[in-house]
Amino acid sequence: MRVLHVTPYYPPTWAYGGIPRVVVALARSQARAGLDVRVWTTDAFDAAGRSNEPAARVVDGVDVRVSRLASNRLAWRHQLFVPTTAPPLDGVDVVHLHGHRHLLNFLAFRAAVSKGVPVVHTPNGTLPRHESKLGVKVLWDALFDGDVPLRAQAVVATSRAEVRDLLLAGVPAARIRRIPNGLVLPEFDDLPERGAFRREQGWGPGPLVVYLGQVSPRKGVEHLVAACAQLPGVRLAVAGSARGMPLPPGNAHYLGTLEGRARLGLLVDADVLVYASAREVFGLVPFEGLLCGAPVIVGGDCGCGELVAEAGAGLLVAHGDVDALAGAIRRVLGDAAGSAEMVRRGRAWIAQNVDADDVAARYTALYHEVRT
Questions:
Q1: Would you say residue 120 has pLDDT above 70?
Q2: pLDDT confidence of 306, banded at 50, 70, 90?
Q3: Do both 26 and 147 map to the same domain?
Q4: Which pLDDT does position 258 carry in this prediction?
Q5: Are the C-beta atoms of 185 and 191 separated by less than 8 Å?
Q6: Which of helix, strand or coil describes residue 319?
Q7: Does pTM surpass 0.85?
Q8: Domain check: are 132 and 243 in the same one?
Q9: How far apart are CA 65 and CA 52, in angstroms?
């Protein structure tokens, strides 16, 4: 079976958030399991420029096809990814769309329908009209791919919170499946030495609070900066690119996008990892932090909080409640034994629920289902 994954960004592109991490873990696990896996993506990289990957390459058994964008500026500033080549559907048995409201999905969905190829859609939290440009999103849905989640053979929710979002958007319940995002667990077997990242940065002793991810209005980084201002002696490190807002002013170390060993090193050194965002249907970062030994605090009104609570693996706070967030950080820093137990429970839950190979097998079963 040949599956085509459609995503506007794919490694080495990380500045656009978590979807590239989700897609690469799934694609590589499926390729290892024997599927014929192809990815259609673009040369989007970051605000400064494009990736320089070839138009076609094979990486870890995955056939990656890269379409040059008509404008990198439009992609970064407005999420308007305009590919200059058609979707590579030759020999494809299932099309798997990732994210929502981008032209690659629109083009791939129409091409798949015309050829009678079934479509699986994983919006990963991008279906609701929230955060910004609400009028543009309404117009986009009317003109382009608003019907994709309604007509796809299956739409995947990563949490119960996202199931509710899909139902509110009119997706038929019979077409909704719940499959979590996956993590490649062996990547966390050989972690950097604790303290190495701190030494490289020239930071002295004292508690280290970390946020890792995009800096956007939904993520609540400005609230974290304000909370840490209430905590003398606490150092705050923020790793990620700013999108849709400036970096919040205040006493924080802004590190930009980190990848590879640097990303893991920051998480290993974190005394507490904060991810107190809103409308987060899953959120890989808290689970990556737990695998690196970091206690976590997450937003309680979203799918990420739902999953962390299910695992008993962290503290929950309301998005935007600065005083509660400061209190939660104090609690984690002041209770080493309790924090260690939350990390232990989190690691056990992750191994049972979000191993990338298990997630890939569930998707493969879904592909067979939609083809019948």
A1: yes
A2: confident
A3: yes
A4: 92
A5: no
A6: coil
A7: yes
A8: no
A9: 13
What whole-number distance in Å separates Cα of residue 303 and Cα of residue 280?
A: 6
The total number of structural domains in the chain stands at 2
Place of tokens 């959120």: 283
- pLDDT of 269 strictly over 70: yes
Mean pLDDT of 345-356: 94
29 and 360 Cβ atoms separated by less than 8 Å: yes
CA pair distance 35, 92, nearest whole angstrom: 11
CATH, residue 289: 3.40.50.2000
316-327 per-position pLDDT tens digit: 999 899 999 999
Long-range pairs, 45-48, Cβ under 8 A, ≥24: 45/12, 45/13, 45/15, 45/72, 46/13, 46/15, 46/76, 46/241, 46/257, 47/15, 47/76, 47/241
Mean pLDDT of 14-24: 88
User: Is the distance from CB of 303 to CB of 162 less than 8 angstroms?
Assistant: yes
SS3 annotation, 76-140: HHHCCCCECCCCCCCCCCEEEEECCCCHHHHHHHHHHHHHCCCEEEECCCCCCCCCCCHHHHHHH
CB within 8 Å of 184: residues ≥ 6 apart: 25, 28, 29, 356
CA distance linking residue 40 with residue 46, whole number of Å? 18
Residue 131 has pLDDT above 70, yes or no: no
User: Are residues 331 and 200 located together in one domain of the fold?
Assistant: yes
Q: How far is the C-alpha of 290 from the C-alpha of 98, rounded, in Å?
A: 25
Residue 277 belongs to domain spanning? 187-353
**Which of 204 and 272 is assigned the larger pLDDT?**
272
Strands 2-6 and 94-98: parallel
Mark whether 278 and 160 lie in a shared domain.
no
C-alpha span between 216 and 232 (Å, rounded): 26
**Are 206 and 303 part of one and the same domain?**
yes
Euclidean distance between CA atoms 326 and 78, whole angstroms: 34
- Give the type of residue at 141: D
Nearest to 294 by CA among 322, 315, 269: 269
Q: Which two tokens stand for residue 279?
A: 């409308």
Same domain assignment for residues 121 and 174? yes
**In a shared domain, residues 141 and 203:** no
76 and 104 housed in the same domain: yes
